[in-house]
């Protein structure tokens, strides 16, 4: 009996109605609307308990309608146990990297959320798929396009979903920016400006180790600018220029990762994008210049307090939308895709496209030549 | 007796004091400060009565302390006569392009302000120098670096001043931006973003004729972004990338001038700039990202209503300065340099530097390669 019920619930959820709400609306319209019964939540295993998991992802489950934390994977058992207590994860859901493959036997885990250093994404994604799990993997998907392709193949072989954690694609202001651009509310977009950066701290962190991070600011923060230029244009770049600078002697970049890399993109329709990626200074803005107005988000990629503005004819109109927890939206989307057997908005193929473009950006900077790509 | 008096007055002006103010301050300190006597104004011949001269330059003389319009040069005698009446230019100061060289005999003209289409700047500058006049020439200085060099040589041969009309270099907000960047009020600048553009109208105007304009948006409006990147960094670019797009079939660009050209600059200190130049969309911002804060002007290059902001840690501080007439400041500077025998802040050499960089920008876009320059 469970399956038909689940299917029906999914249908109601897909139409935006819960069973209770659908009946309540018809029968007792004059009464205050009662919340529907809790949706079935899918279980997530969070793999890698660094600052992103601790400060953002684990607290976000409280805001989820469809996702709950049911397992934690960490090399630090004490840390995992402490976080499990805080977030109500059962002790049976605690894993080390050695026992990771036993997730296969944990029916409470539907989805594995890979929050490890970049270079570990492919291995832990593929192993999760082999354990029969769906995977939500943090950005960047991997350090090379080849790894991305292997991850996509593993998901396909397992018949499981693979989604990349592009949280901004689930964030209301960024979604509104996309709508304004695509529906040409202010005419045709012509120039896109995307800047993402921060002054990176601790020189010992994995983000500054080339083997783990795959590169410097571009892999970690510049990817937001690249991804935004792609989602705001709705196109894939066909020509890329890049120019890079890293402060000599700055200990943070001693392992050969780049500090700042600025890139230019040309899209097939003729939209041009100028982008900045930096570990040296704060940058946090996406802007579209269309024929009749410009519209922007600044901050554009913070976890909160995003601000959207429309600039035209000397006036500035504030359009910010009510705040939502970005990670909760992202995890709920993944859970709903699994429940409804739908393709995630940011599947593995999306991560692969960014990796291909990032490799081209690095190649353009290295070769001092425009790199051309097929759209 | 006129010469020593003029020299003394120049000295007082150079020290920021007029004769009356210097004495008044000592003798009657308790009384309200009276304005000093009017400064001696140098006479300007305005050459080319297009919209810039009519709407901006001629009205600006009313705000000048050291400059007055004493001659007009135009191919349209009726237009010249009408404007002469409005602005108090004597009929003896009206010239056609055929009678232009007779400026030599007009002692009321000290400085010739060349406001012609770009391709005509060299000829009319050189002829003015040969007539023994100082020259203020609109930007871009010329269509080629070779022409710029010839203009500089003509000024030198005549022993006269040559200044390029970079009005923003005399505008208080832009000056304050330079000070904030150079004095590192917010730490070392790392990334500079300069965007200048507008949607160009009448397809028949000279700005859209390649032979007259020397190019498209870059020559006319993008030059502001380039010049700002140079004056905000205080350096000359050593590496340049560029990417261009012009809407096919757009009648405005039928003569082969570019619509949008985006360029990247690397400066010797490692500062990177991303710039946009467009005839397709409105763009009007200069921003510096320094280690501790960002600061910007938007609008940055309008004739009025510039807005300066400092952005740090989620706060935005408005720092706009009282408005001044930019052309009046520019013309007064030229007059003061002539009076005090000082080098203008934006001499011919400054115009030449932009032309060399613009040629490199076009070459980078054309060749799809990074163009390197000597600092």
TrEMBL record, chains A, B:
<keyword id="KW-0560">Oxidoreductase</keyword>
<dbReference type="InterPro" id="IPR036291">
    <property type="entry name" value="NAD(P)-bd_dom_sf"/>
</dbReference>
<dbReference type="GO" id="GO:0000166">
    <property type="term" value="F:nucleotide binding"/>
</dbReference>
<dbReference type="Pfam" id="PF22725">
    <property type="entry name" value="GFO_IDH_MocA_C3"/>
</dbReference>
<dbReference type="InterPro" id="IPR000683">
    <property type="entry name" value="Gfo/Idh/MocA-like_OxRdtase_N"/>
</dbReference>
<dbReference type="InterPro" id="IPR006311">
    <property type="entry name" value="TAT_signal"/>
</dbReference>
<dbReference type="InterPro" id="IPR050463">
    <property type="entry name" value="Gfo/Idh/MocA_oxidrdct_glycsds"/>
</dbReference>
<dbReference type="InterPro" id="IPR008354">
    <property type="entry name" value="Glc-Fru_OxRdtase_bac"/>
</dbReference>
<dbReference type="InterPro" id="IPR019546">
    <property type="entry name" value="TAT_signal_bac_arc"/>
</dbReference>
<feature type="domain" description="GFO/IDH/MocA-like oxidoreductase">
    <location>
        <begin position="177"/>
        <end position="296"/>
    </location>
</feature>
<dbReference type="GO" id="GO:0047061">
    <property type="term" value="F:glucose-fructose oxidoreductase activity"/>
</dbReference>
<feature type="domain" description="Gfo/Idh/MocA-like oxidoreductase N-terminal">
    <location>
        <begin position="43"/>
        <end position="166"/>
    </location>
</feature>
<protein>
    <submittedName>
        <fullName>Glucose--fructose oxidoreductase</fullName>
        <ecNumber>1.1.99.28</ecNumber>
    </submittedName>
</protein>
<dbReference type="Pfam" id="PF01408">
    <property type="entry name" value="GFO_IDH_MocA"/>
</dbReference>
<dbReference type="InterPro" id="IPR055170">
    <property type="entry name" value="GFO_IDH_MocA-like_dom"/>
</dbReference>
């Amino acid at each position: 009996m469970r399956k038909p019920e689940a299917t029906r619930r999914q249908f109601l959820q897909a139409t935006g109605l819960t069973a209770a709400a659908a009946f309540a609306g018809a029968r007792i319209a004059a009464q205050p609307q009662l919340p529907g019964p809790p949706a079935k939540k899918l279980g997530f295993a969070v793999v890698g308990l660094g600052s992103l998991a601790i400060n953002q992802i684990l607290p976000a489950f409280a805001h989820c309608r469809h996702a709950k934390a049911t397992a934690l994977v960490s090399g630090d058992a004490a840390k995992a146990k402490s976080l499990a207590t805080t977030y109500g994860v059962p002790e049976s859901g605690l894993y080390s990297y050695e026992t990771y493959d036993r997730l296969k036997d944990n029916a409470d885990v539907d989805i594995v959320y890979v929050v490890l250093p970049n270079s570990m994404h492919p291995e832990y994604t593929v192993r999760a798929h082999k354990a029969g799990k769906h995977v939500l993997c943090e950005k960047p998907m991997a350090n090379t396009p080849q790894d991305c392709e292997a991850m996509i193949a593993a998901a396909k072989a397992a018949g499981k979903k693979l989604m990349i954690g592009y949280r901004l694609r689930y964030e209301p202001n960024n979604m509104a920016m996309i709508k304004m651009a695509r529906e040409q509310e202010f005419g045709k977009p012509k120039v896109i400006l995307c800047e993402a950066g921060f002054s990176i701290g601790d020189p010992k962190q994995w983000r500054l180790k080339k083997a783990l991070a795959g590169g410097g600011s571009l892999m970690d923060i510049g990817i937001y600018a690249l991804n935004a230029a792609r989602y705001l244009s709705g196109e894939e770049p066909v020509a890329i220029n890049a120019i890079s600078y890293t402060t000599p002697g700055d200990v943070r970049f001693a392992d050969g990762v780049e500090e700042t890399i600025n890139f230019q993109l040309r899209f097939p329709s003729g939209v041009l994008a100028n982008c900045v990626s930096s570990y040296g200074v704060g940058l946090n803005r996406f802007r579209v210049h269309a024929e009749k107005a410009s519209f922007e988000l600044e901050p554009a990629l913070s976890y909160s307090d995003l601000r959207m503005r429309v600039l035209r004819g000397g006036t500035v109109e504030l359009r910010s939308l009510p705040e939502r927890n970005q990670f909760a939206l992202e995890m709920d989307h993944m859970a709903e895709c699994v429940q409804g057997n739908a393709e995630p908005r940011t599947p593995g193929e999306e991560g692969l496209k960014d990796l291909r473009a990032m490799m081209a950006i690095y190649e353009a900077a290295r070769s001092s030549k425009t790199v051309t790509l097929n759209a």
